[in-house]
Amino acid sequence: MRYGIAGNPHKEQIWEPVAELVSWLMRQDLPFCLHQDVAEGLRERELVGEAVCSENATGNLAAASDVVLSYGGDGTLLRTAHALGDGETPIAGVNIGRLGFLADLDTDGVEEAVQQFEDGAYHVEERLVLQAEARLHGDGDAPDLSARWALNEFVVDRSGATGLLEIEVRAGGAPLNTYWADGLIFATPTGSTAYSLSAGGPLLAPGTEAVILTPIAPHTLTVRPIVLPADTAIEVRVRSGGQPYVFAADGRNNPIETDGVIFSVERAAHTVNLAKLDGQSYFKTLRSKLMWGAQGARERGRAGAWGG
């Protein structure tokens, strides 16, 4: 296998682990390539020889790699996914961030992970992706969306101005609700552990064929998140009263200054593929990151001590 190496060049913590991996891959005579930003960072810090950086640098990891190792956090993995585009090259996230729901490999376990990749002891998870288009109700030009698909979520959100947004939603051609809120999140199962979770949305296991609509600070207390089938065609009309707002895709903001824009959100034709080692468990990651069971374990320990 040929290993692509990507990372967040703004995280100083990535450089030593990446340099160690490169040295190890060379000793093992395993082919690899470096994203241009990573190659440049290694060269500037003199952690890897200039010739090695030059010979292995590429601007197209998707075409040059069988699997991409993304060093950083979940945000870095999302950026890596967008950089790879709609191809099938799987990504394995190496966590140098905080929670790491997506980037679930540790830096000290990367060499072992590569050995498992070499042995074929891994599988590929196809993660649902959403796509969006924008049009204008009435005459005029619709805003151009620089980011048209999302692995985690799309978000309609205020851009700092006062006043609520009026967000009218139709699902499968039928009226669903008009939200008066700070915003609205359209999350995939992958994104259920991200912004949607912090706004009170439910967790969905990977592979669940569904989309979550989670309002952000709704004005009406009876409004709650709702889970829709993944193939539901969703139409969203935003009335902002003239104030600017954003339509974001995985944290990449599309500023909107036109009132009455209609967004179409639906399942994308492609997936984002994540490389997972055999034995890795989503539920184990969930329990670890959210500390589920920790209180119960402490209580059992106290009961055992007291019960003598």
Spatial order of the strands forming the largest sheet: 8-7-18-15-10-11
Average pLDDT, all residues = 91
Number of helices: 9
Structural class: alpha+beta
Order of helices and strands: EHEHHEHEHEHEEEEEEEHEEEEEEEHH
Overall, the morphology is: globular
Q: What name does the CATH topology of the largest domain carry?
A: Tumour Suppressor Smad4
Strand content: 25-35%
Count of DSSP strands? 19
CATH architecture of the largest domain: Sandwich
CATH class of the largest domain: Mainly Beta
Helix % is 25-40%
CATH superfamily of the largest domain: Probable inorganic polyphosphate/atp-NAD kinase, domain 2
- CA distance, first residue to last residue: 55 Å
Largest sheet: 6 strands, antiparallel
Please give a structural write-up.
- This protein is of the alpha+beta class and 308 residues long.
- It is globular.
- Helix 2 (36-44) runs antiparallel to helix 3.
- The model has no long low-confidence stretch (mean pLDDT 91).
- The longest helix is centred in the last third of the chain and has 14 residues, at 294-307.
- It folds into two domains: 3-120, 3-Layer(aba) Sandwich (Rossmann fold); 130-267, Sandwich (Tumour Suppressor Smad4).
- Helix content is 26%, strand content 33%.
- The chain has helices at 15-27, 36-44, 50-56, 61-64, 74-84, 110-119, 195-198, 282-290, 294-307, and strands spanning 3-7, 32-35, 57-58, 67-72, 91-95, 122-127, 130-136, 149-150, 153-158, 165-171, 174-181, 183-187, 210-216, 226-229, 234-239, 245-249, 252-256, 261-267, 272-277.
- It contains nine helices and 19 strands.
- The strands form four sheets. Strands 8-7-18-15-10-11 form a six-stranded antiparallel β-sheet, with no helix packed on it. Strands 14-13-12-9-16-17 form a six-stranded antiparallel β-sheet, with no helix packed on it.
